[in-house]
Amino acid sequence: MSSIPSPDLSDRTPVHRHHVDGFGEVRLVPVDPDADLDLLYAWVTEERAKFWGMNGYTREEVHETYTFLDGLTTHHAFLAVLGGRPAALFQTYEPEADPLGECYDVRPGDYGVHLLIGPAHGGQPVANFSSGLIIALIDYILTDPGRRRIVVEPDARNERAIERLRRVGFVLGPEIDKPEKRARLAFLERADAEAAVKAVSHR
Hints:
By secondary structure, the chain is α+β, with helices and mostly antiparallel strands. It contains 5 helices and 9 strands; from the N terminus they run E-E-H-H-E-E-E-H-E-H-E-E-H-E.
């Protein structure tokens, strides 16, 4: 994993910081489609990221995708930074402005997310790596009081991702058919999200 390029994020202003006890501080910084292209391409085209849906993309296609996202006001992409290095790719979106909004009954205050966990630093497993990142990202979402429910839709075959979500407190919903995949909806109400963050974190 050490061959995967890591952009210099030291001077990039975070939109959010959160400390998870026993895990460390996670900083959330906006994706720069140009500066981060090597990392993005390496991560999203790996076999381990097959459920992300970008296996087989060229560098140009990855760049076009994140340049397009960068120009939207309803969709955003971030890198979660742990120990000065990128640890996850985090994307948010407003379901009513996304194709997902045609697949379920969107409620006011719904907020959609995608999360791609990067390889552990140094290739070595880190205790609570995934859950620590998820909690930090949930805390960011909660900074806006208008966000009342977090919505995710992982590939229905991605049992590891679904189990991670269940451990954090997401409630599984129905499976839905999207053009690119069969997905499993899952939801986390704001009160449950706040309780999950409080249980393992301090500000």
